[in-house]
Amino acid sequence: MPSATAPPRSILNSSSAPCNSPKPPTLSEEERNRQIALHHARLLQYRKDIEARNLASTETLLDLPTSPSASPPEPCAAEVQTVKEALKTFQPSDHDALVEERNIDNRCGYVLCPRENRNQDTSGKYRVLIGRKEKDFKVVTSKEMGRWCSDECGKMALYLRVQLGEEPAWTREWQADKPVELYSEKEQKKAIGHGHAQPAPSIVLARPNSRGEDMQQRLRDLAVERGDKSNIDRMSTKVAVRVKENEKRGQTAPAPPSTADGAEDAIEGYVPKGKRDSKPVAGQEEDVEDVMPTI
Fold first, then answer.
1. How does strand 137-141 pair with strand 126-130?
2. Which stretch of DSSP H or E encloses residue 130?
3. pTM for this structure?
4. What is the pLDDT of residues 139-150, one digit of tens each?
5. Which of 10, 131, 243, 252 has its CA 20 to 30 A from that of 187?
6. Is the peptide bond before 25 cis (omega within 30 degrees of 0)?
7. Strand partners, 128
């Protein structure tokens, strides 16, 4: 009686336990819409919180500096920290609004300057600023000049502005942003870097022949290793080298070219044939004179 054959086994490893991973629960359309609405509501609330923070920071920066005798290049450390913390969520447009608010109060637009801004009592729209030389001039608007008390404060304020983020704070991780740097801090770092610069290493000048002697010694050692005796003998002997300068010989003036016969009748160096034949050959005149008396 034939035996029953076993079914073929698969060569693939079959998992012993069936995969029973739980499926994510399916949300109803109403629940999904609710979650989307809550997400957008949180974003709007976060944006409103950032705008309220910027408004409060602007009001705080309007009162700086607290001392009327404060120096913009050397501000108070506490006020510097306040400025850096307030400007974290600012955009360039927020900084422009801060400068405008300070100008309305007749104050310099730089946040750490206690002086008044330059009042432009003129109806002109543009002003021409002349530098140390007459050719060094630039044309600026009167409104731009009235934003600061001096060009130095304008430079420090614009240095803060260029470091602000272009994107709104509610679309970026502003907490991880690097705080802004004051222009005075930049100058101090530059001065410290120049003051504590590493001195240049001293250079020891060797004797003129020391380098050549060292090279000759290395070549001799290499020849010894190779067993090349001819090179050893050749490098051991010194060759006397004499340097002789070329003598400067006097230059004689060139002689003018001699005028050949018929050269006055030449046309660009060429003497016509008729002119050449008309000229008597040397010795012919004497023959004519000798013949005439005999006739």
1. antiparallel
2. strand 126-130
3. 0.53
4. 666 677 778 888
5. 131
6. no
7. 139
